[in-house]
Design a protein that fits this description.
10 helices, 47% helix, 5 strands, globular, Rossmann fold
């Protein structure tokens, strides 16, 4: 009888403690939310809003076999790279949606808001991520997830489009520049996205650098954005793979 009473008392003491114990955490999501995968606009910047509206309108009418997606380096095809663009791409039904200063989240927003429109390109050249690095030194894994989200969104929109995913270009004068090191970490992740069929990966860094890994001002005056000569290197180096993917 005494043992029975002891058991009852023990139960009464333990039950409230169990009730107060925190619930076991739910199984962690496979992908935590972060800025690189969360679409965001830059409409507060007047030039950005204007360019977005222009590209969205043009996309409604454009015949596009070759799509370029990216940031200021891709945007620069309309500036420093204009002559090279005309030589290599003008007859290939190209369309450029590179926006200066964009990060992965901005590309995702633009894709969601009309810049793809009815475009069904044969090939899409994608290079993005250096501003995720430059803006906040975002984790390589997060930026890589943002790049993956862009590829996934494009493939959902146009399943037959082949993706030519470019390694983020080298930046900073020397190999140990902290932003180049971080971009290289991103590249080491995103190269695994290539399947050799619908997604292809190309790292052109050696073409831009000296044998010692130096990025000279002759190629990129600010060690980030190519001058015309740098765009020539880009086009010439990418051409064999691009011809292959376009079926030329």
């Amino acid at each position: 009888m005494a043992m029975f009473k002891l058991a009852i008392i023990s139960t009464l003491l333990v039950t409230p403690l169990l009730a107060q114990a925190p619930a076991a955490p739910a199984k962690a999501a496979t992908q935590q939310a972060h800025s690189a995968i969360t679409p965001a606009d830059r409409l507060q910047a007047g030039w950005w809003k204007k360019r977005h509206e222009q590209k969205r309108a043009a996309a409604q009418q454009a015949e596009c076999d070759l799509l370029f997606i990216g940031d200021s380096i891709t945007h620069g095809w309309e500036g420093a790279g204009k002559k090279v663009w005309a030589e290599y791409y003008s007859k290939r039904k190209p369309f450029n949606i590179g926006f200066s200063g964009d990060r992965t989240e901005h590309v995702l927003w633009r894709m969601d808001n009309g810049e793809l429109a009815q475009l069904k390109p044969k090939v899409a050249v994608i290079m993005i991520g250096t501003n995720n690095t430059g803006h906040s030194m975002q984790k390589a894994e997060e930026t890589a997830e943002g790049i993956k989200a862009i590829i996934t969104k494009l493939q959902k929109h146009s399943p037959k489009t082949k993706v030519l995913l470019l390694a983020i270009f080298p930046r900073g004068e020397k190999p140990d520049h902290k932003m180049r090191v971080l971009n290289n970490r991103i590249n080491n992740i995103i190269k695994s996205y290539a399947d050799g069929k619908m997604v292809h990966y190309l790292d052109m860094a050696p073409a831009f650098l000296t044998d010692e890994g130096i990025l000279t001002k002759e190629v990129m005056p600010d060690r980030l954005h190519p001058r015309e000569y740098g765009y020539g290197i880009w086009a010439k180096t990418m051409e064999p793979k691009l011809k292959e993917l376009l079926g030329e």
